[in-house]
Amino acid sequence: MRQRVTVVLIARNGGEYLERTLSALASQTRSVDALIAVDAGSQDASAQMLAAAAPTAIVTVPPRVAPTFGGAARHVIAGLDAGDPESEWLWLLAHDNAPEPHALASLLAAVEVAPSVAVAGPKLMSFDRPDVIAEFGRSMTRLGASVAMVEGELDQAQHDVTEDVLGVAAHGMLIRRSVWDDLGGFDPGLPTIDAGLDLSVRARLAGHRVIGVPNARVLSAGGPELFDRPTASPSRHARIARAAQLHRRLVYAPALAVPIHWVSLVPLAILRSLLHLLGKHPSFIPGEFAAAFAAAFDGTVFGARRRIARSRKLGWGAIAPLRTSTATMRERRAQQREAEASGGSFAEPKIGYLGGGGLWLAAFAAIVGIVVFGPLLGSNSVVGGGLLPLSATFAELWSTVGYGWREIGTGFVGPADPFAAVLAVLGSLTFWNPSLAVVVLFFAALPLATAGAWFAARAITRTPWIPLVAGILWAASPPLISALMSGRLGAVIAHLALPWLVLLLLKAPKSVASAAGASLLFAVVCASAPSLAPALIIGWVAWMIARPRGVARLIAIPLLAVAMFAPLVLEQIRRAIPLALFADPGAPVGSVGATGWDLALMSATHGLNGWVPVAEALGLPAGSAYFVVAILLAPLGLLALLSLAVPGSGRVIPALALAFLGFATAVASAHLLVTAFGSVAVPVWPGAGLSLFWMGLVGAAIVSLEAIGAADREGRVAAFAAVVAPITAVALCVPLMAGLLAGESPVAASSGRLVPAVVDAEARTMPDVGTLVLTPTGDGALVADLQRGSGATLDDQSTLAATDPAIDAREEALARLAGNLASRGSYDPADDLSTLSVQFVVLADFEPLEAGDTTRAERSAEAVRTRTVDSLDANARVIPVGSTSFGLLWRITDAPVAESIEGPSNVGTLEGRVVLAVQAAILLLTVLLAVPTHRRRRHVRETMSDSRATTFDEETDD
Description:
The chain is of the alpha+beta class. Helix content is 48%, strand content 14%. The strands form 7 sheets. Strands 1, 2, 3, 4, 5, 6, 9, 10 and 11 form a 9-stranded mixed sheet that branches. Strand 24 and strand 25 form a beta hairpin. Helix 13 packs antiparallel against helix 16 (434-458), helix 19 crosses helix 28 and helix 26 runs antiparallel to helix 29 (716-732).
């Protein structure tokens, strides 16, 4: 009996491909018997092109009736005259399925010799690359996931032995009309992806065979999900594929298992969302939940189950041999990874860290660090300037994060500084002694600085020696050395993180992992140096404008920083002092303000980083120091200016913009007075802005050095510039680096105690014992600080306390107590001592400001100290204990029993739990996205159809 073939050609806006498809149908060696042309709501010339082909019939299907290929085929075939269903075959084609001349003949030849075959599928070839297999055969894993047996491979007849398959694609499918009618056609719940696979599975369960015909080739410009649109994003494809898988799972499962599968839909969506985060596909997560909820309320499941029950003649074991086993999937993934790792020729490799000298530079910097910070060797902690020890235990360290009781001064409940989280992470590295991590950081700062700058410079240059120059310049940065010597830990961390932040921002438009890493570092820099936040936000916005295609990855970079700062922002706005958000975290430090000339010469305070005292010690006028510093900065400055005249504006403009933002930040910081040291208002430390200023200058200098190296054939000029700039930068920092060795730096080694040994021993039995610390200042004032237990720690510090202009009742009592204890009179301190629960009084030594204090200030402080000693010695309620390393110590007689005034912990209130939960959730998601999951390489591949090499970067991961 002669077989009759009816072609159902469905088109929607397919004018780009339709003419070739119609021509290919007319050229078949075995002509078709009927051509049913279907216009599925085209808005281009597809309808006219179908009519011009003189088909047997033209059917117009509105998009709302049949919006997809499967829906249109189901709708149209239901209205066709059946004739003899046993001898009639339906050939389903889309507008982009142009068959080769022998395609239909090959398909019919395969089914005619095997009467048991009811469905046959051709080898779908790429429309743009006819020698590449787009798809040939489909299968399922044991868990029901659809698997393309062959996809994206060069056709070398390696799969021509394939015959029996579990399923074939809907496009190009040849199916017996009687089988189509018995099965009910495509499942309405699978309008696109897996429609052909599901129909093939049902055909096999009904006792029929499904085969792939390798000699029948049909072109395809895309899968069924592309039928109604020109493109489909990876996230849309993943959503449709997951929805199809869940639908089939509910349809194929035994009746008793359906409720279990239904209940597991949302939990599985949550689990798979975490896997998507690890796989750097966060855009798949909304589709995951959309597919889960669509499957949960899928009204087509019961109809599909009835159709299977009505047509099924075989058990599910009949298709088991055609499923893809777990071992096979594992092998396929391994082969794919191996092909990705070895395929193609690699472009010129980047400079290696070891081979390029980066590791040797870091080792040399480590040796310099050991020499410079030698007095800190063997210590448990570092104190002085803005430094205090960290909490003694891991639990105490993390208890200061979030929202809760702040153990500083008289104490209060409020949000912690984001810097507390940075300190918690840092201290956790040496969890047995958190303060030791700060000591380690001092010795690791210089090598870490060289490493960060080296990798950042390598990203913008291929010249081997330039990253070394950048590493030296960044490690010998005056802002970094000044921050280390004055104990400004936040500025140190920000300086070390900035090069890595820039490096990840460069990669972020193409990489989710890099964008997440940039988000982490963005939060770290803002938390460590809040004054940099405006500049970073401006840079982030500019980078999104410059890279519009990467906006989807760049847009969320500040999210973690926003979550960390939000509680603090709300509190400072409530207090009507929003500018206090830029206050430096850590212990308040007094300093002499820097002038505009000081900032231009890279000095965050008056004194030009120690050069003014050096000039005065040599008997030279102070102005000579400005001349010397300007000469030492000249090589770097000239290289930065030269960058304006050399090629490479794409790198010069961002670098100089960073320099401008950094200098503007430094100037603004020097004029922003939001904290006080005693009675003296001190500005925000401008050194963080100078770090950004220095980074911009170094970036511009790199561009100049590369241009000089390319133009200088003999290399003498480039070598001279590459040597002079780092040497003068190192020389610029010599007075600073000598400060700790000469004993002129406020930073010093410490055992970790902040109170005298007597008080510390008392605190072991009474953790809330109160110690009143009195410190004379150079302006004749007396600073009163109330310490609890073993003393305040660095992670206890809060900018809320340092910037709060209001004074509560307990602070008034503290000021009254300190003032009266330091003056003779009839004042009875009993009530205030009881209110504040004070048992000890410590009179500390005078703490001069950084550079610029005069003998007059010292005399004034000494006068205050003498008066206070006389008053305390004459007070009957105070008993002198003696001199300690922290100052003179007195004990209060008949001291009240220390009462706990501690408030709720960071998990003790609803606000605390909410803040911690939100911040922890965003941090966890960011970390999961930032963790690299596989190595990425840069390849240069040569295509088969074009001898030109195509370079692509495999760092794009969603």
